[in-house]
Design a protein that fits this description.
This protein has helices at 6-13, 20-31, 37-50, 54-67, 93-102, 122-128, 140-147, 154-157, 162-171, 177-180, 202-211, 269-280, 286-301, 308-320, 323-335, and strands at 78-82, 108-112, 149-153, 191-195, 216-222, 234-240, 243-249. α3 packs across α9 (162-171) and α5 packs across α15. Helix content is 46%, strand content 12%. It is built from 15 helices and 7 strands. It folds into 2 domains: 6-67, Transferase, Pyrimidine Nucleoside Phosphorylase, Chain A, domain 3 (Up-down Bundle); 78-156 and 187-335, 3-Layer(aba) Sandwich (Pyrimidine Nucleoside Phosphorylase, Chain A, domain 2), CATH 3.40.1030. The chain is globular. The N and C termini lie far apart (42 Å). The strands form 2 sheets. It has a 5-stranded mixed beta sheet with strand order 1-4-5-6-7, with helices on both faces. Strands 2-3 form a two-stranded parallel sheet. With 338 residues, the chain is of the alpha/beta class.
């Protein structure tokens, strides 16, 4: 046990905030294994009750990035992921988007995990699709090059997070760590489409990524989901040209019909995987429309589409041509090569 965290706890206890440098130091203590479970729990709850600041999030991300196992990726690589925590139990959207965007030959370094707050996480559905999420780390750059996509399984890239795992489970509530995952992509991507579980966190997350050097970011929230939805209006905060921009997008804006969230309810990994494969094989309906909308946004962020309507057209072509399905099949093959 170290006493190094105690001065930070004393300040947080009286409602003070930490600078980004102080937050980085505090979280480095946690991720080095020097803090006790009680100290970790106290820090997380003090920040949660008062409300985490952009400076505190920025410092925590820096500490997390400093200790992660990084992966080399092309400069134009993009990540598509969400914070989780929306408790909606939908089909896997960002995983499907990965293959649609990869089918447009945009490299997707997808950061993800097994189900934590959802029923079926990205790692779960990929495993059901025959993808080896534990492929050797040294092969990931080659896999990304061959398939235009790769899955960066969070526990393998962020081993220092294990020191906070116990307190997080015991607290049983959202903490700053729920925000950090999407902000610490192991490929150090500078372009991201990231869904957030609550709209009030969109601007802080976008600003944090901007501070950390991102070029183009959309943080999105749709009708309670940590992704864009065709169920109604979507709130978006974008970081572009070194500033924040807020706007709203509806499915009608890009020529897609509305459908209730219930239309994309998911199930276990086998069901979600079968539905995702059917989508890539040409199945139509609300799930396809949802994936098209999110893929379109990713293509805009990646600077491959000028606007969402062009993005929808490119995403549609990726599926219709078989390119999206080919990305999945290549990922399956490349991750199982011995």
């Amino acid at each position: 046990m170290s006493n190094n965290l105690k001065p930070f706890l004393a300040r947080l206890a009286v409602g003070e905030t930490l600078t980004d440098t102080e937050s980085e130091a505090a979280f480095d203590i946690i991720m080095s294994g020097e803090a006790t479970p009680a100290q970790i729990g106290a820090l997380l709850m003090a920040m949660r009750l008062r409300g985490e600041t952009v400076a505190e999030i920025t410092g925590a991300v820096r500490a997390m990035r400093a200790r992660m196992t990084a992966v080399a990726a092309p400069a134009d690589a993009i990540d598509v992921c969400g914070t989780g925590g929306d408790a909606a139990g939908t089909l896997n959207v960002s995983t499907a988007v990965t293959f649609v965007v990869a089918g447009c030959e945009v490299p997707v370094a997808k950061h993800g995990n097994r189900a934590l707050s959802s029923r079926t996480g990205g790692a779960d559905v990929l495993t059901a699709l025959g993808v080896n999420v534990d492929a050797p780390l040294e092969r990931l750059p080659d896999i990304l090059r061959a398939a235009h996509c790769a899955f960066l399984f969070a526990p393998r890239h962020h081993p220092s997070m294990r020191h906070a795992a116990g307190p997080r489970v015991e607290l049983g509530t959202r903490t700053i760590f729920n925000l950090l995952g999407p902000l610490a992509n192991p490929a150090r991507v500078r372009r991201q489409l990231t869904g957030v579980f609550a709209p009030e966190w969109a601007a802080p997350m976008a600003e944090t990524l901007g501070r950390l050097g991102s070029e183009s970011v959309w943080i999105v929230h749709g009708q309670g989901l940590d992704e864009l939805t065709v169920a109604g209006e979507n709130q978006i905060v974008a970081w572009q040209d070194a500033g924040l921009r807020r706007f709203v997008v509806s499915p009608e804006d890009v020529g897609l019909p509305r459908a209730p969230i219930e239309a994309i309810r998911g199930g276990d990994a086998a069901l979600n995987a079968a539905t995702l494969r059917a989508l890539l094989q040409g199945a139509t309906g609300p799930y396809r429309d949802t994936v098209l909308l999110n893929a379109a946004a990713a293509l805009v962020v990646a600077a491959r589409a000028a606007d969402l309507r062009e993005g929808v057209a490119l995403a549609t072509r990726s599926i219709a041509s078989g390119a999206a399905l080919a990305a999945l099949e290549t990922l399956q093959r490349e991750t199982t090569v011995h």
